[in-house]
Amino acid sequence: MTDAVSFAVVVPTLNAGPAWQQWIDGLKSQSATPDKVLIVDSSSNDATADIAAAAGYDVLRIERKDFNHGTTRQLAAERLGDAEIIIYLTQDAILADQDALKNLLSTFADPSVAIAYGRQLPHRDAKPIGAHARIFNYTEKSEVKSANDISRLGLKVAFVSNSFAAYRRAVLMSIGGFPSDNIFGEDTYVSAKVILAGLKVAYVSDAKVFHSHDYSVIQDFQRYFDIGVFHSREPWLRSAFGGAEGEGKRFVVSELRFLMKNAIFLIPSSMFRTLVKYVGYRMGLIEHRLSKKTKLKLSMHKGYWS
Predict the structure, then answer these.
(1) What is the DSSP annotation of 88-133?
(2) Any idea what DSSP says for residue 279?
(3) DSSP letter at 163?
(4) Of 291, 290, 271, 272, which Cα lies nearest the Cα of 282?
(5) Could you report the per-residue pLDDT of 121-167, keeping only the tens digit for each?
(6) What is the pTM of this model?
(7) Where would a tag sit more exposed on the chain, N or C end, judged by fewer CB atoms within 10 A?
(8) Is beta strand 113-121 parallel, antiparallel or unpaired with respect to 200-210?
């Protein structure tokens, strides 16, 4: 597949910092070479754009206020009309080995696969709670998901992460592309549309990146508030696939078991964070009752509200 397919890599950036060169080195080492690499930079005030240009990549500069998770990625897709497959990465997702792109692309040999996403490994210095989130969501077993799996997986069937995901461009455009007005979750939005259109989403466990976050308690609240906002503003997701509460319970049990073995002293923090996330999510679901000023304070993606 990698010999025949035309593919591009897209990365939105903002002040990528010292790890940016490591990201570029990871891409340069790949056994599958992209036809084009497009960096969409939100007016970084460090050397991010200059380093990318020096590496030979196309750099599209946009105003920081114009960034939106869906709009920015759709802008890139519209500029890459020659690409059959578009691979999206984030600036902090470091390709783990030289075959990461090749392995991700290989699943498109099945013409019914419209989206593929890779395995995210915790960074080597990740803390236990952040590491578990990656271990839970990105297992060692690959799978291909379709509408037949909705009854088994619920909303999880549409799970995808644009930190490392590939899309058939023609399919992406045929369903209307990435949404322009979502707070985030543009990847889940498109994946859900693909599933409902009768196509498939593949999880490729041997396509790996290092990518994890050690969120603070406040960041946990803000992130889950934004998830609630996303679900509130896209009610068709829960209507078509069911709610996320069951998956949430499974995550909590898994996290407690993980901490019992690896960091038992963090269990009180984990339990408190679970409550914080739940409250954040429920408040996000009722965001229409809140003032814009309040939502701005509660949200992680503050630019969305302006």
Answers:
(1) EE-TT-EE-STTHHHHHHHGGGSTTEEEEEEEEEPPTT--HHHHHH
(2) H
(3) T
(4) 290
(5) 999 999 999 999 999 999 999 999 999 999 999 999 999 999 999 99
(6) 0.94
(7) C
(8) parallel
